[in-house]
């Protein structure tokens, strides 16, 4: 038995009409896509919906995959966009913004108001605390810390400069630790990440 | 005071070069806010290290797999419903519209042309392509799909090169200086669409090679007729589109004849 086929090879086979190749792609990435959706959206049902949408979107867009980016990078982008779409539909949290953040009103970028103030007063575990991290920071943080993507890859996934990714990851870490109760200081006024443009 | 957020991420990662680290440490000496954030960021990293993966539902992606099988079998249709509220209602409506359009597509060209079926079956054993047809045409996905579906009913395609009025619009010749030799064009298609190792060539009979553009990219389009073999008529038309510069996949589509 030889080495496993590369994703790009499976894409090529599917485009030649081999549906088994697409099934292999789904099986290979099911776990990763679901967990990415789960950590971004914070809800198992939403995550399953977004993951389903992701695979349907991958299928639809696969003919547009040009192979100039790694398939995994491209698939992460499709996944994040599916989460973005679902999040927008749910209207529970501020919209994800990956580009042109400058025009986003200040109020939308501040820390979210927790649903349960008493919960936020105590110490949360990391998973629960992730929900309190502003979504644009959370996406970068999850990709970096839980999916082990390099900053360069995240920049491609989110289509933002690498300096912006690093800044978001840092702000996400700080927000997470504060939500976990690691910070004993009075919270600062909401502020916007000073996103460095390289 | 400005704060080097982007550098702080790398500092916490332990990934900064010596010079950058010195810059950050100099800043930290004077900035209490950043010192605290570094401590918080380290605490967050430590906490996230304990977060483990959650098993995905076993049927996740099944709807897409089923749709992929339908498409691979040449069955057009809308995406299968996932059983979730919201979009599946639209999917159902889309399926109805798609079915109606498909019916029109399949029925209209053949109204009153019953004898043409036998002729088409004969012509489906079309002569292999031996030349590259140069077109000054910028195809998009719909054009490629139209090219594939034009072979329905046999190889006497409505996009056939010598049928005036049915070729891709505004097609004009490409100067001979820019023409790609036939062997090179076929090799480019093979390189783009067949595995790097163990290549047995692309399946089916290559009946047409077109040099044109796809969404602005110089491209080679190959039209393949694929059948079950054993002398049976072809039943699938596949159009593969590769970049003529890098011989990479641009798109592909297929239709049943």
Describe the structure.
The complex is a heterodimer of chains A (198) and B (257). Chain A is mostly helical and 198 residues long. Chain A has two domains: 1-93, Rna Polymerase Sigma Factor, Chain: A (Orthogonal Bundle); 103-192, Arc Repressor Mutant, subunit A, CATH 1.10.10.10. Chain A has helices spanning 7-15, 19-41, 44-61, 71-90, 106-109, 117-121, 126-130, 135-146, 151-158, 162-179. The longest helix of chain A is centred in the N-terminal third of the chain and has 23 residues, at 19-41. In chain B, helix 1 (5-13) packs across helix 3 (32-48) and helix 2 (18-30) packs across helix 3. Chain B has helices at 5-13, 18-30, 32-48, 62-72, 87-107, 114-123, 141-149, 182-193; strands at 132-139, 205-214, 217-226, 236-243, 249-256. Chain B has 257 residues and is of the alpha+beta class. Chain B folds into three domains: 5-48, no CATH class; 67-79 and 90-111, no CATH class; 118-256, no CATH class. A five-stranded mixed sheet of chain B has the order 1-2-3-4-5. The termini of chain B are far apart. Helices cover 40% and strands 17% of the residues of chain B. In chain B, strand 2 (205-214) and strand 3 (217-226) form a beta hairpin. Classes of the chains: A mainly alpha (198), B alpha+beta (257). Chains A and B meet through helix 1, helix 2, helix 3, helix 7 and helix 8 of A and helix 1, helix 3, helix 4, strand 4 and strand 5 of B.
């Amino acid at each position: 038995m030889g080495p496993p086929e590369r994703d790009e090879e499976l894409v090529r086979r599917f485009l030649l009409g081999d549906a088994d190749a697409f099934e292999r792609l789904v099986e290979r990435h099911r776990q990763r896509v679901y967990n990415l959706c789960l950590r971004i959206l914070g809800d198992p049902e939403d995550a399953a919906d977004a993951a389903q949408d992701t695979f349907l979107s991958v299928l639809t867009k696969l003919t547009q995959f040009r192979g100039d980016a790694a398939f995994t990078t491209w698939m992460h982008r499709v996944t994040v966009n599916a989460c973005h779409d679902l999040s927008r539909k749910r209207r529970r949290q501020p919209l994800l913004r990956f580009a042109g953040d400058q025009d986003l009103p200040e109020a939308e970028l501040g820390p979210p108001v927790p649903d349960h103030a008493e919960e936020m007063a105590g110490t949360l575990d990391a998973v629960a605390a992730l929900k309190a991290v502003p979504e644009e920071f959370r996406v970068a943080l999850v990709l970096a810390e839980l999916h082990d993507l390099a900053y360069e890859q995240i920049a491609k996934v989110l289509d933002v400069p690498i300096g912006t990714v690093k800044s978001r990851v840092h702000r996400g870490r700080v927000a997470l630790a504060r939500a976990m109760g690691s910070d004993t200081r009075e919270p600062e006024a909401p502020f916007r990440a000073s996103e460095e443009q390289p | 005071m400005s704060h080097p957020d982007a550098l702080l991420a790398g500092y916490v990662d332990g990934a900064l070069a010596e010079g950058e680290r010195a810059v950050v440490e100099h800043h930290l000496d004077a900035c209490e806010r950043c010192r605290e954030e570094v401590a918080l960021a380290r605490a967050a990293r430590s906490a996230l290290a304990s977060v483990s993966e959650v098993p995905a539902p076993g049927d996740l992606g099944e709807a897409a797999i089923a749709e992929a099988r339908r498409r691979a079998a040449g069955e057009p249709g809308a995406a299968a419903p996932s059983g979730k509220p919201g979009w599946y209602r639209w999917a159902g409506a889309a399926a109805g519209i798609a079915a109606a359009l498909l019916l029109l597509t399949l029925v209209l060209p053949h109204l009153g042309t019953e004898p043409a079926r036998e002729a088409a079956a004969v012509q489906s054993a079309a002569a292999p392509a031996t030349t590259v047809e140069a077109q000054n045409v910028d195809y998009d996905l719909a054009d490629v799909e139209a090219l594939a579906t034009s072979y329905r009913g046999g190889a006497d395609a409505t996009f056939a090169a010598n049928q005036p009025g049915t070729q891709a619009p505004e097609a004009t010749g490409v100067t001979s200086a820019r023409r790609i030799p036939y062997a090179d064009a076929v090799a480019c298609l093979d390189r783009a669409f067949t595995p790097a190792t163990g290549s047995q060539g692309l399946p089916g009979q290559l009946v047409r090679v077109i040099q044109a553009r796809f969404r602005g990219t110089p491209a080679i389009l190959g039209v393949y007729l694929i059948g079950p073999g054993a002398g049976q008529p072809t039943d699938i038309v596949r159009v593969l589109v590769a970049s003529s510069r890098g011989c990479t996949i641009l798109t592909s589509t297929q239709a049943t004849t």
